Amino acid sequence: MFGFLLGEALRDLRRAGRVAVSAIVLITLSLAALGAFWLLSSNLAEAVVQFRERVKIVVYLKREPSSGESRALVERVRALPGVAVVRYVGKAEALGTLKQVLGKDAAVADALPQNPLPASLEITPTAEGATLEGARALVMRLGALPETDEVGGGVEWMEQFAHGRRLLWLFGLGVGAVLAAAAILTVTTATTLVLHARRDEMEIMRLVGAPEHVVRLPLLLQGMMQGLLGAMLAIWLLVGCYAILGPRVEPLVRETLGLARLTFLRPHNVAFLMLAGTLLGGVGGILARGRAEP
Amino acid sequence: MIELHRVSKVYSVGPVKVPALSDVSFRVGKGEFVTLCGPSGAGKTTLLRLLYREEIPTEGEIEVLRQDVTALTRSQVAALRRSIGIVFQDAKLLPGRTVYENVAFVLRVLGTPRREITGRVFDALRAVGLSARAQAYPPQLSQGEAQRAALARAVARKPLLLIADEPTGNLDEGMAAEVIEIVRDIWAGGTTVLFATHQATLAAALKQRTLSLQNGRLLKDEG
Ligand SMILES: Nc1ncnc2c1ncn2[C@@H]1O[C@H](COP(=O)(O)OP(=O)(O)OP(=O)(O)O)[C@@H](O)[C@H]1O
Ligand SMILES: [Mg+2]
């Protein structure tokens, strides 16, 4: 029986022709948009994690503390809210780093009469400390320490960061709106086409006393097949775009986001898209059922 | 088998009331062949549609196969219809399917096992003399062939009751006679038959019990 119902559903799909194709295309587009957004946002989320790891706040100290003092200071700062890791950088270490950076010009540093670099604390904030507000509060707290000369780094990063996330959020909203409109359109189109194509069959089925599920199931199956087809096309589309555009975008991504490469959707995302397509099409079938009621 | 008690049907078309049947009562026993005769607009189709619950009577009671049709649930209606073979006035063949597929379609939706289908479809097509046209599509059929295909579809599942709404409607005499012979054969097989026609001569030629309808009233019940 199921084979028969599936056959009926396939037949409708063929018969509905152009309208079925446009319904599938609409489902494809909306799912491709969803998938693309997903791909971007998961990559951005990855970038966010990396940002956070790289964000450092540096506290320059008024004078170099003794090793006992510095250990106590590190302990005190580590206890502050929003602080994940604290590293003490003494004057000598700072100069060493500078020499490394200067490379073959390091002799310039050697010529200095005394070490001009201050001792400092390198602070990695926690997740809360890495938000814009959290970072501001943290900078204030660090600035208030009696040992602090100046607090640097971090906040400009934070600003950019907050801006990026706002953009991401807006982008998500826009895609969501387009997606919703496309999906509604798809479902409506599917509803009308399915009803039209099956009207005669449904009338005959009812008149000869077919059980209600037999009358209705082909509609549902047909909708679900449309949705699944749309989802598969969407995934192909995404794979294609990823393969073609990915290598081109990657240098840009490396510079702006600091990501080595764009990652594609994970298997569970792909499975979700397939499911979403099938459901989307199924909803069209169910709506068609609803309207078919006398 | 069928029992109508003071049945009336009034269609409401917006504010307009169209009376189609008034105060109709009769009874049909198992195995009978009953002709329903009346001019166009007399209410024949309406009466038949009441029997398989496509319409609900405005007044009166209807019993078909020992069931009060007005009181049935949706699934009971479906069960009732499975016992009734119907030839619709407009045939209602699915144009995109061959004659074979049209007959098989009904068997399949009613859950006939797959391996029985071919045999039963060809039995039915042979009974109406249409086996040679099994692969033709309805638009390629003559009117007589189309009516016979509809008949084959109605009897393929061996109904207890056959309702035929003007199966000879647009046919010439020779073709009409053929269709009538087929219906007679089906009746001879034990099926109760209700046969509607607007041709009084045809009704007379059938020499069976005849219900005469006019303007929605039952004028005569004779034979
Ligand atoms: N669905 C409907 N809505 C409104 N009026 C209807 C409807 N169906 C039939 N009628 C009216 O009811 C009356 C009886 O119609 P019916 O179709 O039962 O006649 P009939 O005897 O089958 O005629 P014919 O021989 O032309 O098929 C007619 O006046 C018709 O216009
Ligand atoms: Mg009629």
Mean pLDDT across the residues of chain B is: 93
In DSSP terms (H or I, runs of 4 or more residues), the helix count of chain A works out at 8
* Number of DSSP E strands of chain A: 4
The CATH topology of chain B, please?
Rossmann fold
| Oligomeric organization of the protein chains | heterodimer
Keywords:
heterodimer, A: 294 residues, alpha+beta, Alpha-Beta Plaits, 2 domains, four-stranded antiparallel β-sheet, 74% helix, B: 223 residues, alpha/beta, Rossmann fold, 35% helix, 29% strand, binds adenosine-5'-triphosphate, binds magnesium ion
Overview of this protein structure:
The complex is a heterodimer of chains A (294) and B (223). Chain A contains 8 helices and 4 strands, in the order H-E-H-E-H-H-E-H-E-H-H-H. Chain A has 294 residues and is of the alpha+beta class. In chain A, helix 1 crosses helix 8 and helix 6 runs antiparallel to helix 7. The model of chain A has no long low-confidence stretch (mean pLDDT 80). Chain B has a single domain, classed as 3-Layer(aba) Sandwich (Rossmann fold), CATH 3.40.50.300. In chain B, the strands form 2 sheets. A 6-stranded mixed beta sheet of chain B has the order 6-7-8-3-9-10, sandwiched between helices. In chain B, strands 2-1-4-5 form a 4-stranded antiparallel beta sheet, with helices on one face. In chain B, helix 4 crosses helix 5 and helix 5 packs parallel to helix 6. The longest helix of chain B is centred in the C-terminal third of the chain and has 16 residues. Classes of the chains: A alpha+beta (294), B alpha/beta (223). Chains A and B meet through helix 6 and helix 7 of A and helix 2 and helix 3 of B. Bound molecules: adenosine-5'-triphosphate and magnesium ion. The site of adenosine-5'-triphosphate has 14 residues of chain B, from strand 1, strand 2 and helix 1.
